[in-house]
User: Which sequence fits this backbone?
């Protein structure tokens, strides 16, 4: 695997290191040792799969407050999506900064999302499927979200979202107290 740093502290875009011949290629999509050597979390407790049938479907921006903060490793396995992350760690040098990248079945990139980040996907094609590993179990009492178009962050979405759940559309403007960012203070 090839680990690329991103403009937000601690996040990575991960490229497959392909070994190929006339049959195709082989590559590791995850290796505990390689992740640990990069200083990344290497223990995951769930693998989640999402399918969005319509182009322009937005899921997010979601996260869980500490102590249930999640690390995610996100890969698109069918179609294409735009993966957006937002640093919510108050002591981080990139606090409240965002980054986004296209993940697709074709480019086989993965996004490593550290604890203390909000995360969203926006589908760029019909029938887009994502597979992601998560480091902590879902804890509904710790769930929070940031509205996708909160002007405080100015996330530049590649297309206008067409499908958004009522829950995701209703997240309030950013408020550090409501959003529980102090719970991430030690992660910066």
Assistant:
């Amino acid at each position: 695997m090839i680990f690329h740093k991103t403009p937000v502290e601690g996040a990575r875009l991960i490229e497959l290191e392909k070994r190929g011949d006339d049959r195709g290629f082989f590559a590791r999509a995850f290796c505990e040792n390689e992740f640990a050597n990069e200083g990344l979390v290497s223990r995951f407790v769930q693998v989640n799969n999402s399918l969005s049938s319509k182009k322009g479907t937005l899921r997010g921006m979601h996260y869980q407050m500490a102590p249930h903060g999640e690390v995610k490793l996100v890969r698109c396995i069918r179609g294409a999506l735009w993966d957006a992350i937002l640093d919510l760690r108050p002591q981080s040098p990139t606090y409240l900064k965002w980054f986004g990248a296209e993940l697709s079945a074709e480019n086989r990139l993965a996004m490593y999302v550290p604890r203390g980040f909000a995360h969203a996907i926006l589908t760029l094609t019909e029938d887009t499927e994502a597979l992601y590993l998560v480091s902590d179990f879902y804890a509904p009492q710790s769930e929070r979200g940031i509205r996708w178009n909160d002007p405080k962050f100015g996330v530049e979405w590649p297309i206008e979202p067409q499908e958004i759940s009522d829950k995701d559309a209703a997240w309030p403007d950013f408020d550090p107290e409501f959003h529980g960012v102090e719970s991430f203070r030690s992660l910066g």
In short: The longest helix spans residues 32-37.
